[in-house]
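ok so I'm stuck.
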Amino acid sequence: MPISLLPFFLGWVVVLCLLLFWRRKAGLVFLALSAIALVVFYANSGVEKSFDEQMPYRLVDIVQRVQFTNSHGDVVTGGSPTLVGRLKEKRPSTVRVSMTCTYDFGKLRAYHFREIDGEPQ
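replied:
not stuck anymore, here's the structure
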């Protein structure tokens, strides 16, 4: 269930109005700090990075998946049973993975594999 931002926005407007009536300078400082916080939040949330690199992997036999570690140290899980079977046969040390990761303040939020070892996902 999504969170409604209307109560927070109304509270912010009330605080801004009170500060502007109390001291005009305090209201303007509050407005400026709010704008800076909004810009910092917007700039650091939903950052997408594309990876096309050789990644070390680990086979997870229980769920027939593969865990990959990218150059940022993020561990992601994906693949298919056919990919797992092929990697069990060959056993290379790394696999070429093309993927897009979405970060919020430097922390991995979501990822999407485009291609794993030449196999489209």
